[in-house]
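Private note to self, pasted from the team thread so I don't lose it. Backbone tokens:
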């Protein structure tokens, strides 16, 4: 049975219609941008200091404060993300400077990440263009036709502990220290300059707090932020009813409204995640700064037709592993066992 959950091209809103709406929310506000910097970086710096002072009282208290700082680091990454899209400030220079600083704090090379992320936006939901800036996703047929070693590697990569605990730390601490194949000179140099900046930051903070304290607190913050960030990114494109297509059948509007989720989070989590739950709006127009995403979503009924994913319902995404292309839906490895039983009858 086919699960045709996606609207036909005729049912999709006209491009001119949604573009006319979103253009009103693409205007950056210097005041709101500076306000976000103040209410994010100042508490983050303060929590660093409090976590250091708490070391004299209890390591557990210090680590607890570091975990809270990690939540602010998620928000710092959203600022970095908006700067990469050129949407946080009106000024390109301001975006690049703040983006670089936020990149140092989040261990992410600014220009290199911006390049890979632009590819992600251009190819979301496109089965023929997977592989850059996304979560490794195989179709059922690809998995069945793969070697035993590749199937083992894929199962390992999609294991929840690997995907949401080990991989995030590896990505931010190790993988992003090296440029990707195909990166231009500017992207490659951005990785090297970021590495130098991170080493400089680590040296200064280690001199102030001590090497052991710095490593424990920094890794705790990065762990909280990276694990949360990877989960957010995963749910934004791996959810029930997600959209994937090939070739000319792929459609930008559908990929945004059906292939990018509306993750309706509790207010406090929405604040820490910088409104990125309105991911369907973000993929319609990456020029909308995070502080305008909710207002844009509420501006027109066509955006509100997107079925929201709640914190509870998002847990279903844990079981999704493969794309069942004939039935156009995400399935788990149990689906493979079911297919094998059918062929053995």
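Design output:
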């Amino acid at each position: 049975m086919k699960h045709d959950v996606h609207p036909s091209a005729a049912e999709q809103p006209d491009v001119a219609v949604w573009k006319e709406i979103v253009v009103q929310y693409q205007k950056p506000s210097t005041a709101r941008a500076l306000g976000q910097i103040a209410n994010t970086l100042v508490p983050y710096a303060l929590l660093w200091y409090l976590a250091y002072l708490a070391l004299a009282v209890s390591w557990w208290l210090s680590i607890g404060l570091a975990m809270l700082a990690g939540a602010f680091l998620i928000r710092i990454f959203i600022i970095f993300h908006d700067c990469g899209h050129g949407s946080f400030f009106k000024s390109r220079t301001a975006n690049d400077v703040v983006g670089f600083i936020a990149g140092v704090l989040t261990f992410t090379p600014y220009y290199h990440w911006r390049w890979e992320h632009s590819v992600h936006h251009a190819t979301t939901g496109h089965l023929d263009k997977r592989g850059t800036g996304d979560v490794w996703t195989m179709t059922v047929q690809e998995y069945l036709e793969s070697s035993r070693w590749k199937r083992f590697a894929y199962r390992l990569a999609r294991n929840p502990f690997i995907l949401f605990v080990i991989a995030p730390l590896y990505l931010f601490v190790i993988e992003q220290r090296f440029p990707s194949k195909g990166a231009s000179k500017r992207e490659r140099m951005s990785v090297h300059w970021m590495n130098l900046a991170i080493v400089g930051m680590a040296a200064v903070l280690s001199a102030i707090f001590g090497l052991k304290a710095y490593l424990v607190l920094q890794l705790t913050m990065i762990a909280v932020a990276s694990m949360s960030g990877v989960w957010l990114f995963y749910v934004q494109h791996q959810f029930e009813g997600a959209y994937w297509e090939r070739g000319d059948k792929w459609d930008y509007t559908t990929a945004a409204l059906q292939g990018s989720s509306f993750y309706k989070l509790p207010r406090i989590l929405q604040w820490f995640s910088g409104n990125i739950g309105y991911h369907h709006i973000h993929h319609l127009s990456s020029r909308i700064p995070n502080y305008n995403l909710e207002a844009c979503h509420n501006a027109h009924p066509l955006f509100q037709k997107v079925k929201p994913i709640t914190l509870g319902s998002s847990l279903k995404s844990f079981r999704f592993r493969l794309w069942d292309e004939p039935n156009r839906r995400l399935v788990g490895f149990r689906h493979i066992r079911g297919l094998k039983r059918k062929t053995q009858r």
